[in-house]
Specification:
Two copies of one chain form a homodimer. By secondary structure, the first copy, chain A, is of the alpha/beta class. Chain A is about 30% helix and about 20% strand. Chain A is built from ten helices and twelve strands. Chains A, B: It comes from Faecalibacterium prausnitzii. Chains A, B: GO terms for molecular function: RNA binding; RNA methyltransferase activity.
Chain lengths: ~260, ~260
């Protein structure tokens, strides 16, 4: 296996640029992931093109050599450059980004739509919960944390490629499109909303749960575009729930019937 | 207001020791919290003894001066010492730790028990969800993250003093005590368990949700001590849910009836 010893290697620089720039990821249709467990997991739903491993990582996990794509050994100081955080496991993969569009949205499906959810941890967590509870896709508005950024990938634990992710631009227009297909769109909103316990959980023509940013919640335009609103009722002992938690409870409520 | 200019001030050193040592917190029955929003929030459920503020924090939030206790201005370099992380808001409070014991557990109540949940973020999140959903108390086994450590306090957003927290030692014994009071104790376990959807949500004599550590789950002894087991059913697209998420969904299922 060829060994890369220079941090200036073109393939390494390309991978680093994928990790740091959302625009570059979009233009290239590729992303970089890190992790001994995450990279094999991502292979279940995305094409691995290039794998970079340190010698010690390959010793610990010889099965990494069975993964597809071009493989390179990298020296530790090169691995340090590929990593976005100080601690890493010495395993990095360049993957093709699966591309999905609004046209795939279908009557009877189950969707999650996020509006300007900026925290990568929350976006990753919600992807993981949506995949766990049998959702058919996730719509992301402009301004959401990038699904294929290193932090989000870690939080989603690979779910990013196990559920279709659709860049949906402005949500009110996307929601109008979903409603045109008969899908009930429910906005998560604290005020003037019905408690979740009162919301039906089965929607034969489909349902879309719409969740806003941690600080501001949904825009008025997006709430107005939805079919109705729901909230998670709480005691007055807390002011709010964490966005990942609140969203996951909604997803659980609207889960696939067989679960 | 007296101004503290030295990092060697005895009150400052005492506060720092509360932040860094669980044993010292327990011995003293006090804890240190940081945050412009968190300190006033904690006053709703714990006695504030000493408040340290930087001048700029007090200018931004003059209402801090209305809080109870002794108040001190601190210079920025003293505030940096009081903070456990690099970024802080210049507001620190020494509070009396509310003390609760197993004797307070009552038939008909709703409880959460955690066994060796080590991540402070998960413990804090679960406290917040338990308070939100009307639980009457949280039991912590040996080996759980300390509820009154700075990280856990931040994650719980003050919920740590809005719901009784009980140090319960070894869970099997605590669970036997709860069952003696007629409380149904349900262990969260992935295998040989009933799906959550099949579990009743109302328990007139009380219910306790029992959750284990992120990596290992519950010990066999604790599962055996419980009345039954539950799991959150999932598709095979993910391996697991985040512990804070899974626990919060369980808490939502067993929430106070009025919610």
């Amino acid at each position: 296996m060829e060994k890369i010893t220079s941090r200036e290697n073109a393939k390494v620089k390309y991978a680093c640029r994928l990790a740091s720039s959302g625009a570059f990821r979009r233009a290239e249709g590729r992303f970089l992931a890190e992790g001994r467990k995450l990279c094999p997991e991502l292979c279940r739903g995305a094409e691995l093109e290039t794998l970079f491993c340190t010698e010690s990582a390959l010793e610990k996990c010889p099965e990494l050599s069975e993964l597809p794509g071009e493989h390179y050994l990298v020296e530790d100081h090169v691995a340090d450059k590929l990593a976005d955080v100080g601690t890493h496991q010495g395993v990095f993969g360049v993957f093709r980004t699966p591309v999905h569009t609004l046209e795939e949205v279908k009557t009877g499906g189950r969707y999650l739509a996020l509006e300007r959810v900026q925290d990568p941890g929350n976006v990753g967590t919600l992807l993981r919960s949506a995949a766990a509870f049998g959702f058919d896709g996730v719509l992301l508005s402009d301004g959401c944390a990038s699904v294929f950024a290193p932090k989000t990938l870690r939080a989603s634990m690979g779910a990013a490629v196990r559920i279709p992710v659709i860049e949906a631009g402005k949500l009110p227009e996307a929601i109008a499109l979903l409603r045109g297909k008969g899908i009930t769109c429910l906005a998560a909103a604290l005020y003037q909303s019905q408690p979740l316990s009162a919301a039906a959980s089965g929607y034969p023509d489909g349902v879309c749960v719409v969740i806003g940013s941690e600080g501001q919640g949904l825009t008025d335009e997006t709430i107005a575009a939805c079919t109705g609103t729901v909230r998670i009722p709480m005691t007055d002992r807390v002011e709010s729930l964490n966005a990942g938690i609140a969203g996951s409870i909604l997803l659980w409520h609207f889960r696939e019937e067989s679960l």
